[in-house]
Specification:
Elements: H1 7-45, H2 57-60, E1 63-69, E2 73-79, H3 85-90, E3 91-96, E4 99-105, H4 109-137
Antiparallel strand pairs: 1-2, 3-4
């Protein structure tokens, strides 16, 4: 015996598929946008040692990409392979002949970029994504 699906149920299933596709597209767009903003904040805030061996090495070292996190999540991955970045970020001791003679304070440029992105840019991006989804679904 074949069971007929009511037309209202079919419409509901079609709408659920449509909104799933739209939300996935918008999440990808938003994740990429946030990744680019975070990358720009990091590049802008990264200090340059003009007297060093390779001025601007740390600033040029930033790379970014968006990766999937599970089935539906996304994560913006930013990395920099410069070995001395943690010393610039968090500070370090100055040691001469096995004695600590001073301390260089951290610059905290990574922390500031992360906070700016999460506190100001993420809420804006989520609101914009919500508006785009509503518009695409015909709710506005």
């Amino acid at each position: 015996m074949k069971m007929e699906i009511p037309s209202s149920s079919r419409r509901w299933v079609e709408n659920a598929k449509k909104i799933t596709e739209i939300v996935e597209e918008e999440v990808n767009i938003t994740a990429q946008s946030i990744s680019v903003k975070y990358y720009r904040f990091l590049k802008r805030g990264t200090p340059v040692d003009r007297g060093g061996d390779d001025p601007g090495e740390m600033k040029r070292g930033w790379q970014h990409q968006v990766k999937r996190l599970g089935k539906h999540g996304r994560v913006a991955e930013l990395k920099n392979d410069v070995k001395y970045l943690p010393y610039v970020e968090y500070g370090h001791r100055i040691i001469v002949h096995d004695k600590t003679v001073g301390f260089v304070k951290g610059r905290f440029f990574v922390k500031r970029a992360r906070l700016r992105t999460t506190k100001t840019e993420l809420p804006k991006a989520y609101k914009a994504m919500e508006r785009r989804i509503k518009r695409r679904m015909g709710f506005d």
